[in-house]
Amino acid sequence: MQVTNNKQEKIFIGVSWPYANGNIHLGHLAGQNVVTDVFARYHRLKGNSVLMVSGSDSHGAPILTKAEERGIPPEQLVEESHAKIVETFKKLGFLYENYTKTTTENHKIVVQNIFNVLNELGYLEVKETEQYYDGKVKRFLPDRYVKGTCPNCKATNARGDECPECGAYLNPTDLIDPYSTLSDAKPKLKKTKHFYLNLSKLQPEISKWVKASDKPWRKWVREFTRGWLKQGLEPRAVTRDLTFGVKVPIEGWEDKVIYVWIEAVVGYLSAAIEWAEKQGSPSLWESFWKDESAKHYYFVAGGNVPFHTVMWPAEIVAYNEKYGNSELREKYKLPGETSSKPLNLPFDVPANKMLLYKGKKMSKGDGTGINLDAVIDKYNPDLLRYFFVRYAPENHDREYTWKDFIDSNNNELVANIGNFINRVLTFTENKFDGVVPEGYLEDDVREAIQSTFKKVGKSIEACKFVQSIEYILELGKFANKYFNDQAPWERIKSDKEIAGNTIYNNVQIVNALRTLIKPYLPFASRNISTFLNIKDEYDQNEELEANGYVSKVVNNWNFTEIPAGTKLNKANILFEKLEYGDELKGVDEG
């Protein structure tokens, strides 16, 4: 049933940007991408106005490092990687209102606009510092171009920004026995100048905002953020000695670029501006960014939390001062900007912890993890989507095991949901010629269905995705028990009418499950629609996929009965059972 949504919400969703130095890996699925798509699909189905944006992070040391390893220009690497990521997202059914990249002219304009405003308002300051320099290749070394021994865990593969073994944030000068990744030369410290964002100046306002706004956040995100603030914020460099990136828009600084940590997060805004331009309404982005009722959600992996709960909000708070200054407001108008209202700050940052493999964080740069291409080619995309919701590391790091992956398929998708749907539709085909028999919806069935819709919806809105899946599995267990208890294969021998009523109720549960799994398992849900012979049903997500926009404000997150007399189509197996094969050998047996 399509119901007009009179309480439409505006939901802005920013998804952290994967580096364009190769395809994404399984850690990205666990960290943010799958649950984000579930969240967006649900809100579109509910009739809310959704703008979900992201893109390929196309600048920074990881891009240059990989390009140099392959001996190709970074621009070529970015284009290849971006195309591969988009292809992967399509295979997995991920839908964005706009997925772009940070090499666009629009992005450059927005980033430089924000940089200039922060500079004119006095939030940027120039400092002379010492940075490692490789005399052999005659280049300053950005953080990832310096490696050495971690001062915390003594791992010998630590980078100048982070240790992949213990996860510690580092500076290049923290490393023991540092070396250049560009040559065999031992780097030396050399003076250079950079712009710094004065975060200490912004700390009072950010601390006040966090205290007033972090109630919806996950407990660990809230505590982690408050811990950062308690330690005290220090000025942080926002430029780098690189040639590839968004140039510093100040005379005399042409040989430096804006550092990726401050540049990439601006992509959430620039991608929204790009989306509005594509819609033919350049100021449309303001309806999400300047309407106080619009809620901003940022889905990121655990390592990106401070950039989204402290640093990006600091950029916004500082930039928003522009709107109280008529001269700056006119001088630095953003593309399509018409309103003098400030930009919205985050509402929630539902970050996940890390997915580990053999005890290590998955990382493209370090070559740790599992080849996603091989996994996508071998397994049902709905299984991948399901697993990375069911086993999402919402509140603690989680070890990926092939056993969990296969068990989730066999014990839940196959034995619970798939088994029930197949039994009901096969029985209807064999005993009722594939026609939904006459019947009425029993009270306990109606209550089970309606309560599941409410609980699942409430859990998704609270970003409790593991819990939301559990409620669907509970309905599956109820359905299997109901089918077994009613035993229509026995009842039909003596009373076909009562058996028919049982099947009528079971078909309605199948239809309820079809809608409930739409955000999670879009491919399976579409198959069930075919089985149930559902035609001309409006679906916001399918319209977005086909046309690039959503045109109707209706609430499709509800249950509708399949009429008696409906001729069903022959059903196929939804989920195939998997064998415990080569994946387990030498990986996680026992």
Please explain how this structure is put together.
This protein is of the alpha/beta class. It folds into three domains: 10-120 and 263-361, 3-Layer(aba) Sandwich (Rossmann fold); 125-193, Methionyl-trna Synthetase, domain 2 (Beta Complex), CATH 2.170.220; 401-555, Isoleucyl-tRNA Synthetase, Domain 1, CATH 1.10.730. Helix content is 45%, strand content 13%. The chain is built from 20 helices and 18 strands. The chain has helices at residues 26-45, 61-70, 74-92, 105-120, 199-213, 219-231, 260-264, 267-278, 286-289, 305-319, 326-331, 372-378, 381-390, 402-431, 443-461, 465-486, 488-491, 496-516, 522-531, 540-547; strands at residues 3-4, 10-15, 49-56, 98-101, 124-134, 139-140, 146-149, 158-159, 176-180, 188-197, 236-237, 239-240, 257-258, 295-299, 355-357, 360-361, 398-399, 554-555. The protein has a four-stranded parallel sheet, with helices on both faces. The protein has a four-stranded antiparallel sheet with strand order 6-5-10-11. A three-stranded antiparallel sheet has the order 8-7-9, with no helix packed on it. Helix 16 runs antiparallel to helix 18. 45% of the residues are buried.
